[in-house]
Specification:
It is a single chain. By secondary structure, the protein is α+β, with helices and mostly antiparallel strands. The chain folds into 3 domains: 270 residues, 3-Layer(aba) Sandwich (Rossmann fold); 119 residues, P-loop containing nucleotide triphosphate hydrolases (Rossmann fold, 3-Layer(aba) Sandwich), CATH 3.40.50; 140 residues, Peptide chain release factor 3, domain III (Alpha-Beta Plaits, 2-Layer Sandwich), CATH 3.30.70. An 8-stranded antiparallel sheet has the order 17-16-22-13-14-21-18-19. β24 and β25 form a beta hairpin. α4 packs parallel to α5. The radius of gyration is 25 Å and the shape is globular.
């Protein structure tokens, strides 16, 4: 197979949703169709059931939620699929946002009984800003749902996204009988049987076919007939160009837990989705070896960018996630790299752009949740895990061409804060090693706060559950106890450099305000509430505050 054919068959996408919309269940069903697993496990992980393949961390199995993004790869009808299962819980949105930088398309799962929810909106906005094509799956149609036309209207009014239904439900809740494919005019009838198996589709020319008519009550038949007539007459026609540009979303209905409409969704998604797209490289500052924008300073943030085609003859990619201890037996560290151009071959030499050093890419792994196998070659669109490369950090570029530097990874203003410390001096070494590793993974952020308690590190996160994960992992993976101490702050702002910051005690502030620096030594200020922030800006107009780090503020 030629390089062009290999690249064209790649599909790299993430599934996004509000918590409990059925994202992880859908992931498992996709794997079933890809013959990647043979038993679909329930996400609740009851005693007599398997936990989901993508939820590999013990805490995920206990809670029945995804805490860590996971890469799952499989072949299906000629496509090489890279599926990234992401946390839906709002406390882990930062991990999800980073994963969305590595995908070419997104599948948005919506609970058809609830419609568009808050976390779905946030994740959708991230996709929209990046121009990522979005496909929509209305899940849980085997339960009572909202009116299907209302759900379409909500996509347009709440998300501003034109919708074009591909698969339409025949009834809902206990009266859900199957789906109608508007493109093939084919009805797929389903029945509930153990294992979520389905009847073979019945080819019909219209809904009046006796095989279909006998399964629908009069109300459902009349409602579906009216809805389909309305869509055919006044709905948006399917526009592949608009879908790939992110202006229109194809909509599918079904039930993940019962396999209703899942193969139709997978087939349609892979056919209409986009192969790997070109990425934009920062034009680096002349003479600099530290090739990450924040390492190069403000000039790099304003630097022009050039497009790197996927068919570029030089290999390049970027690290979008780091995960330690996926294999408890080895306690290793794996860096997830999205390949953007060229061909990857195991043991090849590349430039680690941040350090300027040459490194050998050995120990390359193909991922399947917690399981792995050695991969000898990979193409743009693929996600490859590299084990044991301690120098790699989130956002780092790896390339054969020193002029290619990707600046893909966003940073986010934290919303909750706590001090973490080691209560047991005998565990000091394990505590430091564990905390350093978790910070490299980006589970939480760390800051240097003035007047911090001795031996304490200030942690910041998007949600408080992330702190619980840090404590749990320190204990379970490193055998280190930890203590969390509450802080009074609810807001963090980055500050532009100013001479006044050399003597923070002379700055006029309200009680409870504190200063510090981030990991790049950029100055920050911490505020207990909105009033103390307003008072600070009023009394110190020369000190400019920003929601994001300065290099990212300049980029946006």
């Amino acid at each position: 197979m030629s390089p062009e054919q290999e690249i064209a068959r790649r599909r790299t996408f993430a599934i996004i949703s509000h918590p409990d919309a059925g994202k992880t269940t859908l992931t498992e069903k996709f794997l079933l169709y890809g013959n990647a697993i043979h038993l679909a496990g329930a996400v609740t992980a009851r005693k007599n059931q398997r936990a989901t393949t993508s939820d590999w961390m013990e805490l995920e199995k206990q809670r029945g939620i995804s805490i860590s993004s996971t890469v799952l790869q499989f072949d299906y009808t000629g496509y090489a699929v890279n599926l990234l299962d992401t946390p839906g819980h709002k406390d882990f949105s930062e991990d999800t946002y980073r994963v969305l930088t590595a995908v070419d398309a997104a599948l948005m799962v919506i609970d058809a009984a609830k419609g568009v929810e808050s976390q779905t909106r946030k994740l959708f906005e991230v996709c929209r800003r990046r121009g990522v094509p979005i496909f929509t799956f209305m899940n849980k149609c085997d339960r009572p749902t909202r009116n299907a036309l209302e759900l379409l209207d909500e996509l347009e009014t709440v998300l501003g996204l034109q919708s074009s239904p591909v698969i339409w439900p025949l009834g809902n809740g206990p009266g859900f009988r199957g789906v109608f494919d508007r493109r093939t005019r084919q009805v797929h009838l389903f029945e509930r049987v153990p294992g979520g198996a389905y009847q073979a589709p019945v080819n019909v020319t219209s809904l009046d076919d006796p095989a279909v008519r006998s399964r629908l009550d009069d109300y459902t038949f009349n409602e579906v007939t009216e809805q389909l007539a309305m869509l055919d007459g006044a709905g948006h026609p399917f526009d592949l160009e608009a879908v790939r540009a992110g202006r229109q979303t194809p909509v599918y209905f079904g039930s993940a837990v019962n396999n209703f409409g899942i193969q139709l969704l997978l087939d349609g998604f892979l056919k209409d989705s986009v192969p790997p797209a070109p990425r934009r490289s920062v034009v680096t500052v002349a003479g600099s070896t530290a090739a990450r924008p924040e390492a190069q300073g403000p000039a790099a943030a304003d630097a022009p960018k050039r497009e790197i085609p996927v068919a570029h003859d030089k290999f390049s990619g970027f690290v979008f996630k780091i995960q330690a201890n996926m294999d408890p037996k080895h306690r290793d560290r794996i860096a997830f790299v999205r390949i953007c151009s060229g061909k990857f071959e195991r043991d090849m030499m590349v430039i680690h752009q941040r350090s300027g050093k040459n490194i050998r890419l050995s120990s390359s792994q193909k991922l399947f949740g917690q399981e792995r196998e050695t991969v000898n070659e990979a193409w743009p669109g693929d996600v490859v895990g590299f084990v044991g490369h301690d120098a790699l950090g989130i956002g780092d570029t790896l390339s054969e061409d020193k002029a290619i530097v990707y600046d893909e990874i966003p940073r986010f203003p934290p919303e909750v804060f706590t001090y973490i410390s080691n209560p047991n001096p005998a565990d000091a070494k394990k505590f430091r090693a564990g905390l350093e590793q978790l910070l490299q993974e980006g589970v939480v952020q760390a800051f240097n706060a003035r007047n911090a308690p001795p031996g304490a590190t200030l942690l910041a996160a998007v949600g408080p559950l992330q702190f619980e994960v840090v404590q749990w992992r320190l204990q379970s993976e490193y055998g280190a106890e930890s203590r969390l101490t509450p802080t009074p702050w609810t807001l963090l702002k980055w500050l532009e450099p100013h001479p006044a910051l050399k003597n923070p005690s002379a700055i006029v502030v309200a009680t409870g305000v504190s200063f510090g620096t981030d990991k790049f030594d950029q100055p920050i200020a911490l505020f207990p509430n909105d009033w103390t922030l307003r008072y600070f800006t009023e009394k110190n107009p020369e000190l400019k505050t920003h929601d994001l780090p300065l290099e990212q503020t300049r980029r946006e």
